[in-house]
Amino acid sequence: MIGLVLLLVLAIGVPVFAVVAMAVLTGFLQAELEPALLIISVLELGDQVQLLAVPLMSFVAAILGRDYYLNAWILPISSMAGENSGLNPSSIAVRLLSALASGCAVGLTMVIPAVLYTAISEVAAPRHSVSAEVLLVTALIPVALVAVAAACMPGLGGRARSVFGSVSVAAERTGRPLWDLGAAILLLVAVVAGWLALLDVALVAAIWAAVTRVLVFHELSWQQLTDKAVRAAVTSAGVLLVVGLSLAWAAILHDAGTLQALSDGIGRGTGQTLAFLLVASLLLVAGGFVFGLQIGVVLIAPLIVPVGLSLGVDALGLGVMCLVGVLLGRGSLALVRAPLPEGGGPTS
Amino acid sequence: MTRDVHDSAGQANDPTGKLIAALESGSVACLFAMVVLVALVKQVGSHFGGLPVGWADDAISALLLWLVMVGSAVAAGRLGHYRVRVIESLFPTGVAVVLMRLSFLTAAVVSLVLAWYGLRAVLLELEFGRVVLDRVPLWAIYVIVPAAFAVMAARFLAFGLAPSPVFRLREDKGSGR
After folding, report:
1. Cβ contact (<8 Å) for A10 and B84?
2. What is the 3-state secondary structure (H, E, C) of chain A?
3. What is the mean pLDDT of residues B6-31?
4. Domain assignment present for B59
5. Nearest-angstrom CA–CA distance, B99 and A158
6. Is B48 among the domain residues?
7. Per residue in A123-169, pLDDT tens?
8. Which of residues 11-40 of B touch A (CB under 8 A)?
9. Structural domain tally of chain B?
10. Does any domain span residue B171?
11. Which domain holds residue B56?
12. Which secondary structure element, helix H or strand E, spans residue B170, and what is its range?
């Protein structure tokens, strides 16, 4: 009953942070805990230094354009792949380049969800937490495959061209995206090799984006750079506030054993595990569709991580499922919103 | 066609509004620059050694908390917090405005409750008397939490009770989150 009321409150447009706070306060009162403890999780937000990657990567996205990395590389190269059909060496090279570019592009886009998932899972399942770097590296291949599959899907060309609106802009900037691709590859290689943590990557990416756009390409003035920093910080603050409150939510679910009791009720057979994975996947796709990558992970992860672990699902596998699930949901939203291409395409 | 609701408060034209907006943006920009700088010093120091960066963790924690809370208060004034706009887009304009007012008033009440509990946490910390960064009392860092929630409550209350011209419903192709 309370869950339905909260869903209704969410649907009428109450900000997500307020709905999460209401859920947590209700949980505290039901568990007869001091509601002021809710504030502790907000106060401790600053202790999770890795979360600094969220405003930093948002700053990168604000400078390079919304979903830049996701948008700028997939389609131009996939269209090149379409023009070079067949199994000649150049076609294979282009396709390999497409996969590499997509992997790097989407990989950097997933830095924020990976950091957020790690922060949440450390509270929701303290004994099974995974590092954000390992999660990102493990998720790289399935995430890139999803992106490449979506970009190369027949019939999606025109529609996707509209979806990834910045593609033509990026393509016109001859040479400049190559700099970014080079930086993206270097950063991801550094993560895979263990030379840099995600916070280092976010710092380098932010400094790279600012320096290249202001000092090298002169695309932005210092005032515009400051405006973008403010916009990124304000947007990230909204996300991190939800994270802080969700940490309390995850702690309640963990301490009260609510989800453990639920998973005990479900049982531990193969069928139950498969049913859980199906439901969790649908929840994640729906979360990514409605809330986007960041809030989708923050809201859904506290629910599925404890149940999944109690059913014997691998912690790292759950993390990868979270990242891929919200990415699919986010991509579905982009496809639904895209205007139809002229002269064809599926009807909506 | 999707309908989106835009506030005029976020685009203030009066001198006071402009001053407040400039102060807000300046504060957020300063906090962001400081936290990036401290993080950079810490990461460089820890990777290459030789630099005493033990203070950096406490500084980053404090700055990150302030950035989140000040940014959240600014976001409240610009209607920048994440919201789902499913139902309000299905109803006629009048009903949508009522639903928006209801949602903002709900957010104001929740923010006020959080401000109250935040104040209690600060008072508790005042009794403990802990310090960080050598001599900075912890309560002075935590005080931003009730302050920011109180500002958010005031702003959501203002949106909830504002006269109807504040809400400008417009037909906007493909806009909104």
Report:
1. yes
2. CHHHHHHHHHHCCCCHHHHHHHHHHHHHHHCCCCCCHHHHHHHHHHHCHHHHHHHHHHHHHHHHCCCHHHHHHHHHHHHHHHHCCCCCHHHHHHHHHHHHHHHHHHHHHCHHHHHHHHHHHHHHCHHHCCCHHHHHHHHHHHHHHHHHHHHHCCCCHHHHHHHCCCHHHHHHCCCHHHHHHHHHHHHHHHHHCCCCCHHHHHHHHHHHHHHHHHHHCCCCCHHHHHHHHHHHHHHHHHHHHHHHHHHHHHHHHHHHCHHHHHHHHHCCCHHHHHHHHHHHHHHHHHHHHHHHHHHHHHHHHHHHHHHHHHCCCCHHHHHHHHHHHHHHHHHHHHHHHCCCCCCCCCCC
3. 76
4. yes
5. 38
6. yes
7. 767 677 778 778 877 877 777 676 666 655 544 444 444 334 333 44
8. 25, 28-29, 31-33, 35-36, 39-40
9. 1
10. yes
11. 15-175
12. strand B167-172
Q: Cβ B71–A206 below 8 Å, yes or no?
A: no
Average predicted confidence (pLDDT) for chain A: 73
pLDDT (0 to 100) of residue B177: 38
pLDDT in tens, A290-304: 887 778 888 888 778
CA distance, residue B169 to nearest chain A CA (Å): 15
ipTM of the complex: 0.84
CA nearest to A7, candidates A19, A24, A25: A19
pLDDT of residue B32: 93
- Token reading at B110: 């929740």
User: Does the residue B8 lie in any domain?
Assistant: no
Predicted model pTM: 0.80
Alpha-carbon gap, residue B132 to B154, rounded angstroms: 31
